[in-house]
């Protein structure tokens, strides 16, 4: 017979056995880098599920390990799903880094450190020729290009990644566990090179809160829109979603437009454009596309391109603004395809010349690269594209870009379906940048 006191002791454990005890979760995970836009800096962001301190210990590769350390801040992100899961998002900005030097780091606290990772501090020279991988629409399920991107990043093929909206499908799902798993999946890329982002429609749930909390882009807009410089380029990231989710505030659309105008004006000051002649934009939903899905870009009066007349006051579109300020290259995603356009403005083609369309083009060049891989698979094309459509592919894949110098920029499309084969490439050559280059 069990003594009475032993039976009581046993009973006192029953509720614990029934409910289970959640694990202590102080181990850092979902480590990712971003470039704050200030030369010699790098931001490290990660997650824990219990509150801990936010520290990064780092040192030059080949030097004494972890000889330097930096502290940062922690924000509590409570997901809006039923479970109201709590995530502690840690952010530490490293400063005073030597351009082009490689650093070894780990992040966490005395309650647990991450694995060791490496990154190379961005070279702040305007003669630096950075190499990018860029894509949109990469999900947790069917992330077709992910393994190739992970491996190529670890082989040192890229300096920066641009993820042009639509993450995880969707980060908020399963009480934000899909977001957690997606951030773990991209760690093998994003812990090694800055992972620069813009929001897409799949981030919209709970007013983009998973996106705004998990990423750490430059500026004070919770990563919604911002700009930064690298090599000979000024790179602008925007939210096209302000044109579609008016329930989160029409004022955002106007705020972004006002900011964009000022940013483009500043980038076009002769002393600035002389140093950073390329202006490159990235935004999720394209102005043009030849997919057959009735998205915004399939319509002549696309909101992103021409604005909206059904708002008070009417909302200006972006095509005229980008043209007026001589934007050279516009990167888009959302359509689960790859499409390269001839230089286009106002629905018309403005090639540099018949033989060399991308040599001194007379309008911005558009690339749509939204086929990295997600559960929605790839899209289909309209059989009769307009004149501005130069090359199309429904293969899964992503784009590589090298900003070679002030006059030359190289783009190529990798097909994951064809085992990494380059299926398209162009050189954009510009002797002159800015509005006057169109004439
Ligand atoms: Fe999308």
Automatic annotation (TrEMBL):
Signal peptide: 1-20
Keywords annotated in UniProt: Glycoprotein, Hydrolase, Signal
Enzyme class of the recorded protein, top EC level: hydrolase
Reaction catalysed by this enzyme: a phosphate monoester + H2O = an alcohol + phosphate
Known EC number: 3.1.3.2
Pfam families reported in the protein's UniProt record: Metallophos, Metallophos_C, Pur_ac_phosph_N
Coiled coil: none
Annotated ranges, domain Purple acid phosphatase C-terminal: 363-425
GO MF annotations, alphabetized: acid phosphatase activity; metal ion binding
Domain Calcineurin-like phosphoesterase: 131-338
Domain Purple acid phosphatase N-terminal: 28-120
Family: Belongs to the metallophosphoesterase superfamily. Purple acid phosphatase family.
Protein name: Purple acid phosphatase
Protein source organism: Dicentrarchus labrax
Gene behind this protein: acp7
């Amino acid at each position: 017979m069990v003594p009475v006191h032993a039976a009581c002791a046993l009973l006192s454990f029953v509720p614990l056995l029934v409910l289970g005890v959640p694990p202590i979760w102080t181990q850092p995970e979902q480590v990712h880098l971003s470039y704050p836009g200030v030369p010699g800096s790098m931001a490290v962001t990660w997650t824990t599920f219990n509150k801990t301190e936010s520290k990064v210990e780092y040192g030059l590769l080949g030097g004494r390990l972890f000889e330097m350390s930096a502290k940062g801040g922690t924000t509590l992100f409570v997901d809006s799903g039923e479970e109201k899961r709590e995530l502690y998002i840690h952010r530490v900005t490293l400063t005073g880094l030597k351009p082009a030097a490689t650093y070894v780091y780990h992040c966490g606290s005395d309650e647990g450190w991450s694995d060791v990772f490496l990154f190379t501090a961005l070279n702040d020279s305007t003669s630096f020729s950075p190499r990018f991988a860029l894509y949109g629409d990469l999900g947790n399920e069917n992330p077709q290009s992910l393994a190739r991107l992970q491996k190529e990043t670890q082989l040192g093929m890229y300096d920066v990644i641009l993820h042009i909206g639509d993450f995880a499908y969707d980060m908020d799902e399963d009480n934000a566990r899909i977001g957690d798993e997606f951030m773990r999946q991209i760690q093998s890329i994003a812990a090694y090179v800055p992972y620069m982002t813009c929001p897409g429609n799949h981030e919209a749930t709970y007013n983009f809160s998973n996106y705004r909390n998990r990423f750490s882009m430059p500026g004070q807009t919770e990563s919604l829109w911002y700009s930064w410089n690298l090599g000979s380029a000024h790179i602008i990231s925007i939210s096209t979603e302000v044109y579609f989710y008016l329930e989160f505030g029409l004022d955002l659309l106007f705020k972004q437009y006002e900011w964009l105008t000022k940013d483009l004006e500043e980038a076009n000051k002769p002393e600035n454009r002389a140093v950073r002649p390329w202006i490159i934009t990235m935004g999720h939903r394209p102005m043009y596309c030849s997919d057959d899905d009735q998205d915004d870009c399939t319509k002549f009066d696309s909101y992103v391109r021409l604005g909206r007349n059904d708002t008070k006051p009417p909302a200006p579109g972006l095509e005229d603004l980008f043209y007026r300020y001589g934007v050279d290259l516009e990167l888009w995603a959302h359509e689960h395809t790859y499409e390269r356009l001839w230089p286009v403005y106002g629905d018309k083609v403005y090639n540099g010349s018949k033989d060399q369309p991308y040599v001194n083009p007379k309008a911005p060049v558009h690339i749509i690269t939204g086929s990295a891989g997600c559960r929605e698979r790839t899209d289909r094309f309209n059989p009769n594209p307009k004149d501005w459509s130069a090359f199309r592919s429904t293969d899964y894949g992503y784009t590589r870009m090298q900003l070679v110098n002030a006059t030359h920029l190289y783009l190529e499309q990798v097909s994951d379906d064809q085992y990494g084969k380059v299926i398209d490439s162009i050189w954009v050559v510009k002797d002159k940048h800015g509005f006057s280059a169109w004439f």
